[in-house]
Amino acid sequence: MLLKSKGSNEIASSEITPKEICRAVQMSRRQMVAGVGAAAAAAAMPRMAFGLDKLNAVPSSYAVPDRATTPQAKAQSYNNFYEFGTSKDEPARYAHTLRTRPWTVRIEGLVKSPQTIDIDKILSYRPIEQRVYRFRCVEAWSMVIPWDGYPLSELIQFVQPLPSAKYVQFISLADKKQMPDLGDSGINPPYSEGLRMDEAMNPLTLLTFGSYGETLANQQGAPIRVIVPWKYGFKSAKSIVTIRFVDKQPHTTWNDLNSGEYGFYSNVNPKVDHPRWSQATERLLNSPGNSLFDKRVPTLMFNGYQDQVASMYAGMDLKKNY
């Protein structure tokens, strides 16, 4: 069963928790409860296993017509996941220790329906969409990846945030037994990220379970992450175990570590350079082999999603709020 989510053009930038959400919540909750109630029927479906099973993803209209899709092997071998090492190849080599089942996500904070949800119940209630998105890293490289999931707004409507909830915080798994480099890479566990409520409700923000039609590889943030395609990649939290609704801007890992280099918003902006390198261009990783053959291309404002998201930042100084 599909849920209807509000479009970004219906959410005023000045009203972080819009009234429209409250009016839609009761209907959305009934729809999602019906879907979750059908979880028993999911017993007939193959249970998701670590990075191997196929997802029956429904094609969507989201595409990147001007760029080739990054080969799956490259997208799954060139990753940032510091809990498994700081080199780009280390997550693919070491993330096999991550156990993705059983997996639950705790919903807490300023929310009417705090609860712990099993990921397989989340997966069972509605068809998964495949969306091809640009994915841009703050280190000035990018990919084009088909992600599999559905809008985060649907889960948010289901759990009913209170009007006082202005931000959504995502907490990642922190388990030294599963993550050998936890705490040794320079970041303080657990990994934390956050979005303003209107950003989390934007239709582009994807609650993500897979890529390339398969469940997420461990090194990509299995079994559940968010994808926020107009922001630098570190804003898209991986291996989420807690979603917390709060009234103040939450602490986030990279912003806490170095606020001068990693702003809370971190919208892709070619006019605001990282202190140590330019953001005007990016290395597009879409060749199957050696990255020496990957070319540099101009960086697009909001990573090419300006029409869908720019209204949320109307009147903001995007150099100050980087």
Q: How many strands?
A: 13
Number of domains: 1
Q: Based on CA inertia axes, which overall geometry fits?
A: globular
| SSE order, one letter for each helix or strand | HEHHEEHEEHEEHEEEEHEEH
Instruction: Report the sheet with the most strands, covering strand number, pairing sense and barrel closure.
Output: 8 strands, mixed
Instruction: Determine Rg (CA atoms, Å).
Output: 19 Å
Mean pLDDT: 86
**What low-confidence regions span 5 or more consecutive residues with pLDDT below 50?**
1-52
The CATH H-level superfamily is Oxidoreductase, molybdopterin-binding domain
Q: Could you name the CATH class?
A: Alpha Beta
Number of continuous helical runs: 8
Output the keywords.
disordered N terminus; single chain; 21% strand; globular; 322 residues; alpha+beta
Polypeptide structure, described:
There is one protein chain. The protein is an alpha+beta fold and 322 residues long. The protein has a single domain (8-313), classed as Alpha-Beta Complex (Sulfite Oxidase, Chain A, domain 2), CATH 3.90.420. Helix content is 17%, strand content 21%. The chain contains eight helices and 13 strands. Strands 1, 4, 5, 8, 9, 10, 12 and 13 form an eight-stranded mixed β-sheet that branches. A hairpin with a 5-residue loop joins strand 2 (104-109) and strand 3 (115-118). Helix 1 crosses helix 5 (152-159). The termini are far apart. The relative contact order is 0.19.
Q: In summary, what is this structure?
A:
By secondary structure, this protein is an alpha+beta fold. The protein is built from 8 helices and 13 strands.
